[in-house]
Amino acid sequence: MAFFIREMGPSHRDEVWRIDEGEAVDIFAPESGIARQFKAGPGETALERMAKDTPWLDGDSPFHPLRVAPGEHNPRIARPLFGAHDDWGDWSPSVHTEPEVVAASQGQARTLLRQLERICQTVQPGPKTFDAFGHDIRNLLILASTEVETYWRGILVANGARRRRFSTNDYVMLADVLGLRDFAVGFPAFPAIEPVRPFASWGLGDNPTNDLPWYAAYNAVKHNREGEFEQASLNNAFNALSACAVLLAAQYGRSGLGRQTDLSAFFHFVERPSWPIGEAYVAWPRRALGTSTHEHFKVAHHPKLAAIQDKP
């Protein structure tokens, strides 16, 4: 059994269909009192019957396969919510099902941001000063990078991954799953700084640690301050903090940084992923969208992440 979104165009509401070889059903039609069902006849499929009875399948198919079945979601992975207004942006039921985790993550991010703002009162960040380094910057880089590791591990575990010890060879799976390479972060308070892409090259090289220059710098200055101190730069600190902001948004969508908070004021997403229609979460049964929407979802582990297991 497979589910599909039928794209209806800007003037009509998209539909959700359950389609197999023998039957195609508009699963929300009963709520409107209209029975919309196509049953295959002898020697034909349900889609072939639909094509005979309607003009829908002339030319390109309007059906997009749903990656996650209606009523299911991947924990800590934000996606568009089917039927929601555009201003909802990406969304995750985990915001409501794990409120303590979300609050702790945002609280730590605010603490790190306050440290960065204090440093920026001494060193005005910009192209001429981004190579500046020092003890406070090193400490901030280490804390921000370990927070990133906390997010990485939490997402994997929430989706069923199990290893005695995870590494960046595991974490790099998140680059595609969360669309991390598509995020660009700007800083309204410092217009001289070009937007940064903390995950731009992750997974595109031979080493997932070295693919992230700021993360490689963190490992260097953590283990060898005397020899690698210059890597504790303001540039790397900005990228590490931006990586935290990106991961909050990638996990929790519009609620990741909060609305009208110090986090959302400092970090501005000038680019973010644009997900295919079939990546949407669909509430089941359908209800008016609101704060209780999360109640209509159950957890389904992301298969790529759930496959990360220690060998027996």
Query: Mean pLDDT score, rounded?
Result: 91
Coarse morphology:
elongated
Helices and strands: which structural class? Answer: alpha+beta
Separation, N- and C-terminal Cα atoms: 32 Å
Helix content: 25-40%
Q: Which residue ranges are poorly predicted, with pLDDT under 50 across at least 5 consecutive positions?
A: none
Give the H and E element order: EEEHEHEEEEHHHHHEHHHHEEH
Question: Count of DSSP helices?
Answer: 12
Largest sheet descriptor: 5 strands, antiparallel
- Number of β-strand runs: 11
Strand order of the largest sheet: 4-3-2-1-5
The amount of beta strand, in percent, is 5-15%
Radius of gyration: 23 Å
Descriptive notes:
Helices cover 37% and strands 11% of the residues. It is built from twelve helices and eleven strands. Strands 4-3-2-1-5 form a five-stranded antiparallel beta sheet. A two-stranded parallel sheet has the order 6-11. A hairpin with an 8-residue loop joins strand 1 (2-6) and strand 2 (15-19). Helix 4 packs antiparallel against helix 10 (234-252), helix 5 (135-158) packs across helix 8 and helix 8 (213-223) packs across helix 10 (234-252). The longest helix has 24 residues, at 99-122. The radius of gyration is 23 Å and the shape is elongated. It starts with a strand and ends in a 6-residue tail after the last helix.
